[in-house]
């Protein structure tokens, strides 16, 4: 993975910790927690690949899971360790590696895998496929993984309120109907946007069974300003919408047009790794 991406996260570790606390991103947070609660096994070892500062790892540790954290940013991992140990919790390991170097993890070492960031930043299909194959390899047969992508269709919708000035060029609008590779000066850092069908294709090629997929922001996708306003002006309405959005993130009528797409997959029983 690019040193540009590593430098970005090294420089923004605290921002990554606080990002999921803002009123709009809380939708993504609750939807993802719901998917973890619904599809992960009740106990076991979870590998959090691209763990960042450990927000999801902490939730899992508090529920009694064993958790290994891996991230390419040493600053993110240091913050994760500080937060985890500050709560009196203990992770299995903190591994400072890119997701494409997942070979440091043993075959069939975990019952569940989170890949909630690395696929946002891998511009080459062969690198994304490598991450997917390794996620398959480290899972026990029957194990479940959550893999996230940034969805171009959802970014197109969000752009109406967040960066509409770029749509003065109509070609910019139509770019979001397909996958995109954005370099450092085009996005928040080097990043990859895709569309649902392409993401499913990549994951199926890695041998996984797709259980379901979700749009993390559900029907609130692209409504950052409105959601943030309701958080201040009408907390009851905000709370009701947050709950409903997290509960409907898998609904077909919403999930194809949200910024964050989370695909829930299973390694088939009696399967072998041949990659």
From TrEMBL:
InterPro entries hit by this protein: Methyltransf_25, SAM-dependent_MTases_sf
Coiled coil: none
This protein's name: Methyltransferase domain-containing protein
One Pfam family hit: Methyltransf_25
Superkingdom as given in the UniProt entry: Bacteria
SUPFAM superfamilies xref list: S-adenosyl-L-methionine-dependent methyltransferases
Transmembrane segments: none
Domain Methyltransferase: from-to ranges: 46-143
